[in-house]
Amino acid sequence: VKLPESCEWVLHCAAALAQLPAADTVSTGQLAEHFGVPAPYLAKQLAHLVRAGVLAASTGPRGGFRLARPAERITVLDVVEAVDGGTDPYQCRELRQQGRGAAPAAECTEPCALAATMRAAHDAWRASLAAVSLADIVGTLPAEIPERTRRLLARPR
Amino acid sequence: VKLPESCEWVLHCAAALAQLPAADTVSTGQLAEHFGVPAPYLAKQLAHLVRAGVLAASTGPRGGFRLARPAERITVLDVVEAVDGGTDPYQCRELRQQGRGAAPAAECTEPCALAATMRAAHDAWRASLAAVSLADIVGTLPAEIPERTRRLLARPR
DNA sequence: GCAGATCTACTCGGATAGGTGGTGTCCGAGTGCCTTGGG
DNA sequence: CCCAAGGCACTCGGACACCACCTATCCGAGTAGATCTGC
């Protein structure tokens, strides 16, 4: 079980966008400097979020990224699965039906008990993340943080 | 989020050992043939389980692996974390304190809200896996399965 | 027949190469803003 | 002074190398059991 490091980047980017007025757009370069991460790769990950429908992108001057929905309707799970792919980390390859000890198909009508257990755990993980929205995250921050974020990410001109 | 494929191997191996009399030992070669997986690499993973205290290994003829504790006291989480390392998949690198938008340390006395959310989800995942023991897994299998397992993994001689 | 030492064969454990996916970087296509010229 | 067309600078999106981790494999150290010999 291991999440890409870029997952943290996009989570913080999404949280930062949630602290701004909904219509504001921020470019990749601004976000990259704000967090001290390489800009081109960050752009790649943000593109994944756009494809997943979490962010919206605008081109041209004063273009950039903004949230595709109100922050209340974007969960942490949406962001994480957008960058990670959302596939179950445990892939059951029906090991019980392979090798010398292969069980006949007649005894495998029910899903593998191990796979079911792993699946249930993954569902619990997803439910835990789906219960927290970006608005909830912003709500827990002390008031100074969003204020500075708004000031630093305000577009020059 | 992605688990190694070998995780499934060791889970099935541990489940198979749980179906045998507690004192029986099974060698790597037998388990590898039983499941149709490469033997040397499987040995490496089983060694991880030994280091984690889940399995016990015996050398010499009629040596091999057996459960280190009764199956009721070994949870699926024990096996998964033994092979995976048990580190939190989300590593908070305090991104909020880096880059141009770095927050002063005085405002970072509380843990990052994102990290706390991810941590809570990971805890939910762990709790879900810790609630299922190997004995529970064996209990859900139809009676024919453990019977065949015992017959096929019985040691020649 | 029995005990002891030896010998063998089987076991695990760590050190060693190769492939796949995340990490980091670059350049091109597209678009909205600003400028500038004319009416 | 107002409007429209052109240029331009800035933006995202996809294609290209690099590195770490998982996968796969080998050989060596150690030990329990079986054997063989002597009493």
Overview features:
DNA-binding; 157 residues; 5% strand; homodimer
Strand order of the largest sheet of chain A: 1-2
Secondary-structure element order of chain A, as H and E? Answer: HHHEEHHHH
Distance between the termini of chain A: 45 Å
Major sheet attributes of chain A: 2 strands, antiparallel
Our count of helices of chain A gives 7
Describe what you observe in this structure.
2 copies of one chain form a homodimer. By secondary structure, chain A is mainly alpha-helical. Chain A has 7 helices and 2 strands. The first copy, chain A, has a two-stranded antiparallel sheet with strand order 1-2. Chain A starts with 5 loop residues before the first helix and ends with a helix. Chains A and B meet through helix 1, helix 2, helix 5 and helix 7 of A and helix 1, helix 2, helix 4, helix 5 and helix 7 of B. Chain A binds a DNA duplex (39 and 39 nucleotides) through helix 3.
Task: Produce a short descriptive summary.
With 157 residues, chain A is mainly α. In chain A, 50% of the residues lie in helices and 5% in strands.
Q: In terms of topology, how is this protein built?
A:
2 copies of one chain form a homodimer.
Chain A: H1 6-18, H2 28-35, H3 39-51, E1 55-58, E2 64-67, H4 76-84, H5 113-130, H6 134-140, H7 144-153
Antiparallel strand pairs in A: 1-2
The structure holds a DNA duplex (39 and 39 nucleotides).
